[in-house]
């Protein structure tokens, strides 16, 4: 039995060195990354037993993804497919005003055809938490149904369901995302959402504290976490909002910061922490992730404890 089971696509990430442009690069760095597996890795670094479910092509690229994730200590329970391709994305790093740029190349990937019946649903029902994100149903109409079915199965098994809204404008429009994701809300216990996404996609106005209250009240979630970038996050639980600041960090790579935050939050909640304490550890994990290249939060518990001990910043009202 796993503490947390996640479901979604993990891609190969290809990046030119330094601030090189893709169109002129002569070499590319290869890494592995995906929101759901990133969350599983972060949770496992804090002692949670974590598994990642997906559908992966039976190819050298698919095997590369699975073997790397397993090397990080999570269980990769995958359906191997002879059809479909390995999804990739390209990342250009740059400072302002150009800024970093992501180019997705994941159409017709193997995971886009994944159906709930292809997986061992008892794995989800026997887990303490089932986690997925709004990225997954954006990938295909099949995955919209699969995501809904997995959330429903988790609920039927008494598993807590956690969901990161994770809107990606390069995958679908705000209107498409709102129509699809709000239909999933009745099956979700814990919602993580960026303040900008609550405003842009759901059309809910207000500061992050108001957003958390309104989301929790309107959609009957057990817990709502609203992230607010460099200002930290707020968490709504039992009609109380807890505010957590962000830790200062020298950023090496911001990719995967939100996933690190979510993984740590879920792991600490599974460990029995209250929401304010879980938010504190989540913010510390996010800060540490920003110092690490790649998508995965390869953080030690000792490093995390040291950051938390140095400067706790939660405020409850």
Amino- and carboxy-terminal Cα gap: 37 Å
Class, according to the CATH hierarchy? Alpha Beta
CATH fold annotation: UDP-N-acetylmuramoyl-L-alanine:D-glutamate ligase
Count of beta strands? 14
Q: What is the element string, with H for helices and E for strands? A: EEEHEHEEEHEHEHEHHEEEHHHE
Give the CATH architecture. Answer: 3-Layer(aba) Sandwich
Largest sheet: number of strands, sense, barrel closure: 10 strands, mixed
Oligomer state of the chains in this structure:
single chain
Could you explain the architecture of this structure?
- Helices cover 35% and strands 23% of the residues.
- It has one domain: UDP-N-acetylmuramoyl-L-alanine:D-glutamate ligase.
- It has a ten-stranded mixed sheet with strand order 5-4-1-8-9-10-11-12-13-14, with helices on both faces. The protein has a four-stranded mixed sheet with strand order 3-2-6-7.
- The chain has ten helices and 14 strands.
- It has helices at 35-45, 60-71, 121-125, 141-156, 174-184, 195-200, 208-219, 257-270, 275-289, 301-310, and strands at 4-7, 11-15, 29-33, 50-57, 75-81, 88-92, 101-105, 129-133, 160-164, 190-194, 223-227, 233-237, 240-244, 314-316.
- Helix 8 runs antiparallel to helix 9 (275-289).
- The protein is of the alpha/beta class.
- The two termini are 37 Å apart.
- This is PfkB domain-containing protein.
- Belongs to the carbohydrate kinase PfkB family.
- InterPro entries: Carb_kinase_PfkB-like, KDG_KDGal_kin_Halo, PfkB_dom, Ribokinase-like.
- It comes from Natronolimnohabitans innermongolicus JCM 12255.
- Keywords: Kinase, Transferase.
């Amino acid at each position: 039995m796993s503490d947390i089971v996640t479901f979604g696509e993990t891609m190969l990430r290809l990046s030119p060195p330094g601030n090189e442009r893709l169109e002129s690069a002569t070499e590319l760095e290869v890494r592995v990354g995906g929101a759901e597996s990133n969350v599983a890795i972060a949770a496992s670094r804090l002692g949670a037993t974590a598994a990642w479910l997906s559908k992966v092509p039976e190819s050298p690229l698919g095997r590369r993804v699975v073997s790397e994730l397993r090397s990080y200590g999570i269980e990769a329970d995958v359906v191997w497919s002879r059809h479909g391709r390995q999804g990739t994305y390209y990342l250009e790093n740059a400072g302002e005003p150009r800024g970093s740029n992501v180019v997705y190349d994941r159409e017709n990937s193997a995971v886009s055809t994944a159906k709930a019946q292809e997986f061992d649903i008892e794995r989800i029902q026997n887990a303490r938490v089932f986690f997925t994100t709004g990225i997954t149903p954006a990938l295909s109409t099949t995955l919209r149904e699969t995501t809904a079915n997995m959330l429903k199965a988790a609920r039927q098994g008494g598993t807590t369901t956690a969901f990161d809204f994770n809107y990606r404008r390069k995958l679908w429009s705000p209107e498409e995302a709102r129509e699809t994701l709000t239909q999933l809300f009745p099956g979700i216990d814990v919602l993580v959402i960026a303040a900008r996404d609550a405003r842009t996609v759901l059309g809910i106005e207000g500061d992050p504290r108001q957003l958390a209250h309104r989301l929790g009240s309107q959609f009957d979630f057990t817990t709502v976490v609203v992230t607010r970038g460099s200002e930290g996050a707020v968490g709504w639980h039992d009609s109380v909002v807890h505010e957590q600041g962000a830790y200062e960090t020298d950023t090496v790579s911001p990719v995967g910061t939100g996933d690190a935050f979510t993984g740590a939050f879920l792991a600490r909640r599974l460990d029995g922490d209250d929401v304010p304490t879980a938010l504190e550890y989540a913010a510390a994990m996010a800060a540490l992730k920003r110092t690490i290249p790649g998508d995965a939060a390869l953080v030690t518990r000792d490093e995390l404890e040291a950051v938390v001990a140095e400067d706790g910043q939660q405020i409850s009202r």
